[in-house]
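For reproducibility, we list the full input for the zinc ion complex.
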Amino acid sequence: MELTITQPDDWHLHLRDGDLLKAVVPHSVSLFGRAIVMPNLKPPITTTVAAMAYQVSILKALPAGSTFTPLMTLYLTDTTSPTEIKLAKKSGVVFGVKLYPAGATTNSQDGVTDLFGKCLPVLEEMVEQNMPLLVHGEVTDPDVDIFDREKVFIETILRPLIERLPQLKVVMEHVTTLDAVRFVESCKEGYVAATVTPQHLLLNRNTIFQGGLQPHNYCLPILKREIHRQAIVSAVTSGSKRFFLGTDSAPHERRRKECSCGCAGVFNAPVALSAYAKVFEEAGALDKLEAFTSFNGPDFYGISRNNSKIKLRKNPWKVPNSYSYSFGELVPMYAGETLDWKPSLD
Ligand SMILES: NC(=O)N[C@@H](CC(=O)O)C(=O)O
Ligand SMILES: [Zn+2]
Ligand SMILES: [Zn+2]
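The corresponding predicted structure, in tokenized form, follows.
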């Protein structure tokens, strides 16, 4: 069996920097046309100038002949200014501003401590400039159970934010719950949308503990119960325009995952398209795959869809156990397992 689809984009990607950037870039740029590149480096990308420099380093790391376009983002802090948003828009390089509640996830220490108290003027300028807010939607209160942090974020932050600024474009990144699906579906189409990762579509929280602790299945937001996984599968395979592909591929060197205080993040770039095809096939919805991978994202961001095509063939392939690079190894999602769908450019 063979499918031809418009070239997809990845609307949530961690490319890192330095040697790790060089190691991971080929896995995304071989098949995706563009990607929204997350700004949670050390130090974070908080200015347009830094975003432009980061874009140059990504472009330098591309394989010869690659036409991949990195779409850059700014990391919102308590002190981001409205002027910075104007600069970001004018640059033509920055496509979103990322909200990390301080302490919510990897490299979020410099994130926002009080969105309504500190960031309203910036958010108002984002409405003015038609600049989307990309949200890691979890509260950080240690008293809130880790499995409830997305749901509580929706009720305490996101719903009030959208009531206050209904013209703000918001992408709820990496949604994981039935609550998030319902919330996104209840909002005005074209203003609130969501990205969905392969791991949240294919794995539930049992897989973090199956046969012993599985650090490579640890990501944030944490995997949820099966009912939540089923809800997001239904949402993406329904054909709704509000959901689109965002892998959240988040590489960490093997020793940083397999240790006593391991990092959160799943490195899924090498398997992402195979994994999404599996989801849609299992739901009997392969006819809806292309809109999710290639139409809904650019339509929401207001940029043109890609012109070229890629192919997905039923051609089982074995995922490598790991990928080596200068500083160590990266263990991909589905390491050592066989996937049915193999994507290629022709
Ligand atoms: N998803 C993750 O578990 N980790 C991401 C950060 C993020 O997207 O929250 C990372 O940068 O490692
Ligand atoms: Zn996140
Ligand atoms: Zn992420």
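The mean pLDDT is 98. Residues 149-164 form the longest helix (16 residues). Both points were considered when choosing residues for closer inspection.
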